[in-house]
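Protocol step 4 of 5: obtain the predicted structure for the target chain.
Materials: sequence only (see below). No template structures provided, no constraints applied. The aim of this step is simply to have a reference model before the mutagenesis design in step 5. Sequence pasted as it appears in the construct record:
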Amino acid sequence: MINNTFLPVILAWHPVLIVLLIILGVLLAVLIALSIVGRKMQKKQEANEATMKQSSQVMSMLIIDKKRLKLKEAGLPQIVMDQTPKYMRRAKLPIVKARVAGRTMNFICDQKIFPVLPVKKEVKAVISGIYIMDIKSSRNNLETPSKTKVGRLERLRMKAQKTLDANKK
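Step 4 output (structure tokens):
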């Protein structure tokens, strides 16, 4: 038998427990919905990549410039702006200005190959529409950018070490 002194304590916590259980249920439902939507989007992305690979072609191009620009500033065709979702229009994309078959064109580049893409050099790239998917070859070896960023203090140390080495000789 329950002691009568604990009954008011249990009844006082009862609404708090109900609210916590409701919040937990809502969070669980949101988590399940996000996982289902995520799976659907992943399947859609894989299908888009497959169609892009089918319609891709290898072209020789001279890379003039590469920058990260907003879609409005990139100089891409208006149809690209119309087909882009509104939330992506403000994002900065890797844009490559290249000369292909005597015409200067702007391309959207893949995030993975953008740092490796050489500027003012000729490359053979895999292109699907205005999207550069991969680099097949380059006349010069492709240089991978350094992964570690050298800080200001480290640069000063390196400079001081060079001057010390120069003074010892």
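Step 4 remarks: The mean pLDDT is 83. Helices lie at 7-54, 78-83, 152-168.
Proceed to step 5.
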